[in-house]
Structures are given as structure tokens and as C-alpha cells.
């Protein structure tokens, strides 16, 4: 059956949340930032639903399904590019407070659900450092915040189709794209096949218990390269 990529609708949210939880069940970042003995899947589902609602209003949130089926097989959430020096709007301000209040409500109701708050902030700081170093294009970057395909549907071209839905838009605006992956193998290679170049590692170190994330960039002007070529040119 052909795959259709559409904007996330309210009724897709439970399926999108389930797909994200399944695809990230053994993700290195999740394993580092959550204490798995105290992990609360219900709290995590509420947190992801809040993120979906926010993404529907503020980002580009896609789901992939087979034609004629309601089952969510893939999810991709992008943040739109922000031009250098572009001031935040009242809408952005209102939306960030709305997100924060929803998260506070969730934390009061469910607690932290195993989230290691200190590690969360270690990650945020590493992310901010790397983005300040590599986001040099004044047009800004489409930022791929979430990209998953459920395990049973991986390797069938769904990731490529979801990626193309936004890289095509980026091409028309001559704008770059950016992502961070919590696995180097096989993701760096997959993303290179999709036109990205590995750019920089994010080291998240909590007193010796560390993980690495891998930042990559896309531009229609980059020719597809091999991992070795890209690594040898990377400003690590
Ligand atoms: C990464 C992910 C989104 C890719 O989606 P996908 O639907 O499996 O990818 P596709 O089938 O569209 O493949 C895209 C390209 O990568 C290649 N590829 C796929 N799996 C690969 C693998 N394990 N190793 C090397 N290349 C691979 C494919 O051949 C394809 O290239 P082609 O079209 O030239 O043949 C998906 O595997 C996934 O959800 N992984 C787990 C969660 C995750 O790590 N998400 C990323 C967080 S940033």
C-alpha cells in the first residue's frame, strides 16, 4: 500500500505518541535521561501529547500512514527556521508559556516519572552550545525535533518520504535543515543517504556518565557524501 504523509491531526495524537514510545524504547538518550526503574509510561505519554499539541500549533508535525489505514507508522516534528535577529512574537511568547504551564501541571500530577532533571539540563546546555556554534546561516534552519518510524515499518522508505516533505520546502526557500540523532550507527549513514552531512558531536556528561548525540545539516547545495569524507571534514 502506498504511504501518505499528512499533517498531524488531533485524532492521530494517541497513535503518534505510541509510535514515538515504541521507536525510542531503547534509545540511548532516553536510557540516559530517564531512570528506567522509575520510568512512568503514562506520564511520558502525557508529556509527548503536550508536545504534539504544541507542535501542531507551532511547528510542522507530520504523520505517515498507509493509504486507507489510520495506524500511525511514522512521525516527524520540525521547528520552523528563525532568521538571525528575528524578534520573538507575542504568539511565540504566549505559546512558550502555554507549553510551560501544561508541563508544570503534568509534573504536579504525575511527578517526574523517572526523568533525571539534572541530565535534562546538561543536554539542553550541550544542545545550546552546539547550535550556537553551527547555526551560522542567517536564514535559520528547519530543525528536525522528532523523527521515528515504528520498527515493523522501518527500511521501507517512510523516513525518506517524511524527510522529503520538508526538505523540498527548504529547497524552495534555499534554507538549510538540521537534526540531532542519539545514535551514530546506523543513523548518520541513513541521514547522509537523505542528503545530510554529519557536523558535530554533542557531548552530554553527567560526572562521567556520558552520552553523545550527533548533529547533521542538510542543504540542497551539499552533494551526497560518504561518512568517511564527511567525518574527515567535520569541525570536531
Ligand atoms: C531513522 C529512521 C527514522 C529512518 O526511517 P526509515 O523509514 O527506516 O528509513 P528509510 O527506509 O526511508 O531509509 C532511508 C535511507 O536510509 C537507508 N537505510 C535504512 N536503514 C538503514 C540502515 N540500517 N543502515 C544503512 N542505511 C539504511 C535506506 O536504504 C534509504 O536509502 P535509499 O532510499 O537510498 O535506499 C528509523 O529507522 C527510526 O525510526 N529509527 C529509530 C528511531 C530513531 O533513531 N530516530 C531518529 C532520531 S534522530
TrEMBL record:
Residues 59-223 form the N-acetyltransferase domain. It comes from the Eukaryota. InterPro entries: Acyl_CoA_acyltransferase, GNAT_dom, Trichothecene_AcTrans. Gene3D superfamilies: 3.40.630.30. GO terms for molecular function: acyltransferase activity, transferring groups other than amino-acyl groups. This is N-acetyltransferase domain-containing protein. The lineage of its organism: Eukaryota, Fungi, Dikarya, Ascomycota, Pezizomycotina.
Amino acid at each position: 500500500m502506498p504511504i501518505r504523509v499528512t499533517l498531524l491531526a488531533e485524532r492521530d495524537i494517541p497513535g503518534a505518541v505510541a509510535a514515538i514510545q515504541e521507536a525510542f524504547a531503547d534509545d540511548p538518550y532516553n536510557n540516559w535521561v530517564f531512570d528506567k526503574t522509575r520510568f512512568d509510561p503514562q506520564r511520558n505519554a502525557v508529556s509527548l501529547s503536550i508536545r504534539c499539541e504544541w507542535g501542531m500549533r507551532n511547528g510542522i508535525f507530520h504523520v505517515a500512514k498507509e493509504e486507507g489505514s489510520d495506524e500511525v507508522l511514522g512521525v516527524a516534528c520540525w521547528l520552523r527556521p528563525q532568521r538571525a535577529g528575528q524578534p520573538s512574537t507575542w504568539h511565540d511568547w504566549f505559546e512558550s508559556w502555554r507549553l510551560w504551564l501544561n508541563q508544570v501541571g503534568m509534573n504536579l500530577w504525575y511527578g517526574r516519572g523517572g526523568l533525571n532533571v539534572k541530565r535534562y539540563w546538561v543536554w539542553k546546555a550541550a544542545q545550546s552550545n552546539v547550535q550556537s556554534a553551527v547555526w551560522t546561516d542567517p536564514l535559520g534552519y528547519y530543525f528536525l525535533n522528532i523523527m521515528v518510524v515504528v520498527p515493523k515499518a522501518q527500511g521501507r522508505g517512510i523516513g525518506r518520504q517524511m524527510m522529503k516533505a520538508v526538505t523540498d520546502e527548504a529547497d524552495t526557500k534555499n534554507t538549510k535543515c538540521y537534526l540531532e540523532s542519539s545514535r551514530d550507527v546506523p543513523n548518520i549513514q541513513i541521514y547522509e543517504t537523505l542528503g545530510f552531512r554529519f557536523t558535530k558531536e554533542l557531548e552530554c556528561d553527567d560526572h562521567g556518565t556520558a552520552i553523545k548525540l550527533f548533529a547533521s545539516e542538510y542543504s540542497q547545495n551539499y552533494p551526497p557524501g560518504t561518512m568517511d569524507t564527511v567525518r574527515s571534514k567535520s569541525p570536531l
